[in-house]
Amino acid sequence: MTRNALRAVGSFYLPVAIIGLPMLFPLYWLLATALKTPGEAFAIPPTWYPHDATIAGFRSVFSDGVFAQAIRTSLLVAGATAVFSVLVALCGGYALARLVFPLRRTGATTLLFTQLFPAAAILIPLYLFWSRVGLHSSRTALIITYLAQAVPVATWLMKSYIETIPIEMEQQAWIDGASRFRAFLHVVLPLAGPAVGATGMLAFVGAWNEFVFALTLTGTDPRMKTLPVAMVDFIGQHGIEWDRLMAAAVVATVPAVVLFFAAQRFFVQGLTAGAVKA
Amino acid sequence: MGLLLFTPALAVIALLFILPVAYEIVISLYRSRVYEASDPFVGWENYRRLLRGGDFPESLGNTLWWTVGSLIGQGLIGVFLAVLLMRNLPGRGAIRTLLLSTWIMPGVVVGAIWRWMFDPIAGVLNALLAGVGLPECDFLGRVDTALASCIATNIWRGVPFWLLMVSARLQAVPQEFYDAAAVDGASGWRRFAHITLPQIRNIVLLCAMLSFIWTFNAFDLIYALTRGGPDIATTTIPMLIYESGIRNGHFGEAAAMSIVFLVLMAAAIAVFVRTSLSRQEEV
């Protein structure tokens, strides 16, 4: 090997490998375990790759009562959160971007400040509140709570996106005799498609991943558990079946990752659209 | 009209942020084993009790170690990798995807993966230790290693975020800066200290602030790893709030903890913003 190649290995590839491999190994181990048979998952010493790979673990996650129910609950809660937060954000974002009203600036900064707010700090009052109104252990309580988490960012993103849509297009519609609402419906909404998709997806991911509120608000009722709560319950049991738990972990990860990347793509498009206008 | 459209957003914010805090201050002034109308008013008693010792000071200490350890680890490794990866690495897109996946996966999943790797019986880390002839270790079950193991997991979770943010910023540093330094014969370390570091300072401060908020509030990761144990060796304040309030029904005390927690966090953010702003003016 030449001197330069040696130096490249020493100063670049070696450090990258020393830090990079441990960074990637847990992801590999997650998949490898999920594909093992129960017997092989527990082998001591562990096998470095699944010797007879099987998707039985995944199958049991989808057929197993607890996980299958939890997946349905998570889909429902995250889906509802996404839909409602997009609706609220469209109204609020349009108002912030286009209309003049009292509290406008305060409202906008408040949105950002909520992002600094620790969830754990309001666990107690929210728990007591939902218990008192009789909605403890209900999906409704969880959806409304998630909505409050998702709405600030969604509104802010929607506002920023609507600001990139030229107001002249709306004004043209007004001149043609359309009402403000019709102009919004036929001009702004079609153009805001990417923002609607992206904010919806981000809201979905946030609700899908959330744990502490789900544990607090639905933790005692087996039919209301979301996927993360069901996973933690599974960890708490004696003699964990790791192959099944890792399969559930993959199932919990895939929607979050796919939607996050899709949302990111929308945003790149959105930003480019804004740049073209400028 | 505008206010009307903005009302749903405002209502949601009020419902989840403003009203709960007001309600929580009230709760924290009552005895409240289980919150009732006849519950005795105790004033500052719940707050005084927190300072008197017991679980709160210890978990405050845990929270500080957990936060500081995670931030330093994430920051050092993240910046180091970002600087190294400035050279074009083959397969960059794939690595980026994997890193982002790590960052976006649910915290409970991260906890589950590492709990499996840390497993004292069939875990892969103990197999590695045994392979090189070291004694095995029950990482999460021992008081002296549990918190460090949790911190290691959180570093793993946070590095991708730092790496992606810092390397995105590094792409924007003009190559001429480095060319000029090379002409002047500056060493690698000097190039880092005098060119790279000033360029990435702001993004590092931003990452540190966001990581601080996420780590200080973290719940899911530790809960999946240890549930705060053994004993309370890995119990941070958010977990103590959950344990004493939701699990044991000491709502008054848990509410007082939450208020203290909120104040501490606000103070930390204020100090952080102030120092980073004043530093910026010097530049």
Helicity range of chain A? over 70%
* Unreliable sequence segments of chain B: none
SS field, number of helical segments of chain A: 13
Name given to the CATH architecture of chain A: Orthogonal Bundle
Number of strands of chain B: 0
Biggest sheet of chain B, in brief?
A: none
The overall strand count of chain A is: 0
N- to C-terminal distance of chain A: 52 Å
**Largest interface here, residues on each chain?**
A-B, 82 and 83 residues
Mean pLDDT of chain A comes to 84
CATH superfamily of chain A: MetI-like
Please state roughly what percent of the residues of chain B sit in beta strands, choosing from under 5%, 5-15%, 15-25%, 25-35%, 35-45% or over 45%. Answer: under 5%
Please name the CATH topology of chain A: MetI-like fold
Oligomer class: heterodimer
Overall mean pLDDT of chain B stands at 85
Corresponding CATH superfamily of the domain at 58-249 in chain B: MetI-like
Strand content of chain A: under 5%
Helix content of chain B: over 70%
Q: What gross morphology of chain A would you assign?
A: globular
How many helix segments of chain B?
12
Explain what you see:
The complex is a heterodimer of chains A (278) and B (283). Chain A is mainly α and 278 residues long. Chain A has helices at 3-34, 38-41, 56-63, 65-98, 104-113, 123-132, 139-163, 167-175, 180-191, 193-209, 212-218, 227-236, 242-277. In chain A, α7 packs antiparallel against α10 (193-209). The longest helix of chain A is centred in the C-terminal third of the chain and has 36 residues, at 242-277. Residues 271-278 of chain A have low confidence and may be disordered. Chain B has 283 residues and is mostly helical. Chain B has a domain at 58-249: MetI-like (MetI-like fold). Chain B has helices at 2-27, 45-51, 55-84, 92-104, 107-118, 124-131, 143-171, 175-183, 188-216, 220-225, 237-247, 251-282. The longest helix of chain B is centred in the last third of the chain and has 32 residues, at 251-282. In chain B, 39% of the residues are buried. The model of chain B has no long low-confidence stretch (mean pLDDT 85). The chains are: A mainly alpha (278), B mainly alpha (283).
